[in-house]
Amino acid sequence: MKGRTYLHRFKRHLEHAHEYIVKGDYIQFSEKLWGAVTALNNYYSLSKYGRETTSIEDKKKVFVNLFNELSVYDESLLSDINLITLTEDPEDIFDLLLGLHKYFYGAFELPSTYIHHIYERLLSMLSKIGKLTQRVL
Question: Which of 18, 40, 24 is nearest to 93 (CA)?
């Protein structure tokens, strides 16, 4: 039951992220993406390991494991990462999303042009990951 709650949160956070980007609210957009990733991580972690993730280190490991498992079913995920980070390393996407989370908390500033440049690809990739997760798990 708790897993379904996390999937629902994942979808809601992605929807809200899209709404905030349309409004030009990059700070809230950034936090909604982080919320989506955290919810998806917890869904996957509960399914695979019977527990939620708490530390950033655990969240990163779980995200990488999820990504690697899903990329077997859809190799285009690696291309998606490459379009955003110029690498095919899921750790780089996690680090980017963590950076957006830190941006929300005011740890540093990001140019709006940077966020505007990556938002469509991030939303698309996370949506694809969510759909694959539901299909595979």
Answer: 40
Please state, in angstroms and rounded to a whole number, the distance separating the CA atoms of residues 15 and 127.
Answer: 10
Distances (CA, A) of 79 to 2, 51, 118: 32, 30, 14
- Alpha carbons within 13 angstroms on the beta-carbon side of residue 135 total 11
Do 46 and 6 contact (CB within 8 A), yes or no?
A: yes
pLDDT, tens digit, 9 for 90 and up, residues 40-91: 999 999 999 999 999 999 999 999 999 999 999 999 999 999 999 999 999 9
Which ranges constitute the DSSP H helices of 26-111? 26-49, 56-71, 76-85, 90-104
At 111 the three-state DSSP class reads coil
Q: Sorting pLDDT into bands at 50, 70 and 90, what band is 22? A: very high
